[in-house]
Amino acid sequence: MLNPWRLQLLVDLQELGTVRAVAGRAHLSPSAVSQQLAVLERETGAALVEREGRRVRLTPAGQLLADRSRDVLHRLEQLSAGTGDAPSGTVRLAVFQSAVHALAVPAAEAVAAAHPAVEVVVLELEPHESMPALRRGDVDVIVTTTDLAGTELGPAVDLLPLGTDEVVAVLPPGHPAAAAERLDLAACAGERWTLDVPGSYMSELTTRRCRDAGFEPHVVCRLQNYLLALQHVAAGRSVALLPSLAVDARSDVVTRPLDPPSVRRVVAAVRRPSAAQPAVRAVLDQLRTTAGVGLRHR
């Protein structure tokens, strides 16, 4: 009988691509992972991996076994989760910045009230960081957007749609462009801009929308903290594009939807084997309930 733990190492190798990455996820040394894969080859009587220089890749037999093992491991997780036990344990929930107080904190508090044995640990990770973290097994559940290049799903990731969040232009009080009901960004071609850090979802989106409007944004400030970005705009030092969830109603700024509109799809994502765990299911259910209040649904 094949050892499920060794099958998981093979599945991880298919997903992550390197023995070193598999070792990091499994908290083993690379040599220990290689030894276990060699044992699996002896058990199956087939060559499962082959070397290409300093890298390894799965053989056709290895690909087939990994594909079948994924289904088997998923069923084992379901059987383990179906024992009737109440949800318990720690769930690591990674969310983008604007969803921390809008979704994650209320959901974590509601889960704690309903399931005292479940602890939800909230981490702030932007979409370009959270999906790789989920695939590595560093977190259990993420709230992200599917609209960012580089957040491609692996074969073992499930999505739960939560709603949509419109991106808005954020302007200082009394700004002339605020006279429009919907803002054509060409009206802000000569403005000073605050953007998120390079490579982030909002930085890429803002740059793309400005270029689509015919200009390159004059960036005078890059801030990861949306509260600081709002303060910078409120002081009349710049303009910005931010998700609606990020705009604190107490901030002295004016917001306008864009023309054409820019709406991001917000989803929860979970690795398929983890989705069967009672504690993870409790978090997913509560995220959906909380999102029903804080997000638009289309």
Automatic annotation (TrEMBL):
CDD domains reported in the protein's UniProt record: HTH_ARSR
Tagged with keyword Transcription regulation: yes
Domain HTH lysR-type: 1-59
PROSITE patterns noted in UniProt: HTH_LYSR
Any single GO CC term annotated in Swiss-Prot or TrEMBL for this entry: protein-DNA complex
Keywords from the UniProt entry: DNA-binding, Transcription, Transcription regulation
InterPro entries, per the entry: ArsR-like_HTH, LysR_HTH_N, LysR_subst-bd, WH-like_DNA-bd_sf, WH_DNA-bd_sf
Domain of life: Bacteria
Any one Gene Ontology molecular-function term assigned to this protein's record: DNA-binding transcription factor activity
Keyword Translocase in record: no
A Pfam family annotated for this UniProt entry: LysR_substrate
Entry's family note: Belongs to the LysR transcriptional regulatory family.
Protein's name according to its UniProt entry: DNA-binding transcriptional regulator, LysR family
Origin species: Klenkia taihuensis
